[in-house]
Specification:
Blueprint (H helix, E strand, L loop, with lengths): L1 H38 L8 H6 L3 E4 L1 E17 L4 E4 L5 E6 L6 E2 L4 E7 L5 E5 L4 E6 L6 E2 L6 E4 L3 E9 L11 E5 L7 E8 L9 E9 L10 E18 L4 E3 L2 E8 L2 E6 L1 E5 L3 E6 L6 E5 L1 H12 L7
Antiparallel strand pairs: 1-21, 2-11, 2-15, 3-10, 4-6, 4-9, 5-8, 6-7, 8-10, 11-14, 12-13, 12-15, 13-14, 15-20, 16-17, 17-18, 17-21, 19-20
Amino acid sequence: MNKTIISTAIITALLTFFFTRMYYVSVEIIHTENHEESNHESEQNFSQELLDEFGIVVETASGGILERTIELPGEIQIDPDRLAHITPRFDGVVQKVFKQIGDTVKKDDLLAVIESNESLTTYELRSSIDGIVLDMHFTKGETAQRPDHFFAVADLSEVWVNLSVYQKYLSQIKMGQTVNMIFSSDDQPEKGQISYISPTLDEQTRTAMARVILKNNELKFRPGQFITGQVIVDNTYCDLIVPKTALETVNDKPVIFTVDEHGIEPKIVTIGKKNHKSVEIVSGLTLGQTFVQKGGFVLKAEFAKESFGGGHNH
């Protein structure tokens, strides 16, 4: 009898321990799952097809040189030493014209033949430089007189870029500084160095002039063309920099979308130094972390849908 009671008590104790242990293990698992779910509740999974469809580009966070620049307006101009105004030596009647506007000429190429009014003999008008005929005032049969009649020939293999320097920037602009010259959004910037800074200000614009000389063998740069010059005034190494295209604004705070095995998640970041295309990240992103470099506005819209209860499975 005593053995039966003892055996029953032992079995009851073991069963109680077993079920109690199972209960606490179950509670722990549920708690862990809930905790993990809360940690990733702001994350979303997007298929690679969706990323490709909307042109979303990812990149690995890294450090680099951040250039601080000053943007100045500028204009391409002809070097005066490379511009020739070729005029008749004596007044006379134009007998023949050999070149027109846009023609390429070499030094000593024949431009026109003129009959002198005084001697009634003909003489030749020839180019004094290699270049392109930019302007001319010569017509066969008319009377050619100085200075109204001339050929304007310019050597455009080298041109000037004259930048307007506002007074507030004068102390930061120096000889020899590198300038990124932007001609259009489709072209790569051209690099040059400041070779001259005017000692006086323009009376009308109250600006100084900084000059950059550009090689122009392919005649890509045209006098009269407006450009933007980005003068590099400082180079700073930053532990973490990203393109400005990676930044989005959510609730008036700068955000970068990070990417990991769980999906894509918006992270609030702190911004440091910046220029026209890049920005230093002080916190919120770590070195080597994958982030959305381009196309974050699409993800921002998707996350906005989720916040209003429009859940999607991607």
